[in-house]
Design brief:
Strand order of the largest sheet: 1-6-3
Radius of gyration: 23 Å
Structural class: alpha+beta
Distance between the termini: 37 Å
Number of helices: 5
Largest sheet: 3 strands, antiparallel
């Protein structure tokens, strides 16, 4: 198998020799540098999980009622990724920080009529 290299992915010398390449020299240089850094990172075995600051949080929720969840810091995104009870589906979902800075979620669960559900949230930080 041929090893990936910046020359194979992005042939900058050919592009820069054209009239368009001369006009877009800064953009071509930026894209070439980005591609080179990306390849270097992938070769060194760094994956998406190494670059993502996130946590999984399990919570017991009542459909349509607000639930406080515990997080490490202030999140930029929260996504319900699993409801453990069979036959259930995500309905509407929202979250916010209350006046005390605590994370409050509200998930409407459809498909079954249980009193409470075990939900796994993916919490993403900046």
């Amino acid at each position: 198998m041929t090893k990936l290299s910046i020359q194979r992915v992005f042939e900058t010398s050919k592009l820069l020799a054209t009239d368009s390449g001369k006009e877009l020299q800064e953009l071509i240089g930026y894209v070439a540098e980005f591609a080179e850094q990306t390849l270097r990172i992938l070769r060194n075995g760094v994956g998406v999980a190494d670059q993502l600051d996130a946590q999984l949080v399990n919570a017991i929720v009542v459909s349509g009622e607000e639930t406080e969840i515990s997080t490490n810091k202030v999140p930029i995104g929260i996504f319900p990724i699993r409801i453990q009870e069979e036959g259930t589906k995500n309905g509407e979902f929202g979250w916010y920080l209350n006046d005390q800075g605590r994370v409050i979620t509200n998930l409407v669960v459809t498909g079954t009529a249980l009193d409470q559900y075990t939900v796994t949230y993916l919490v993403i930080y900046s």
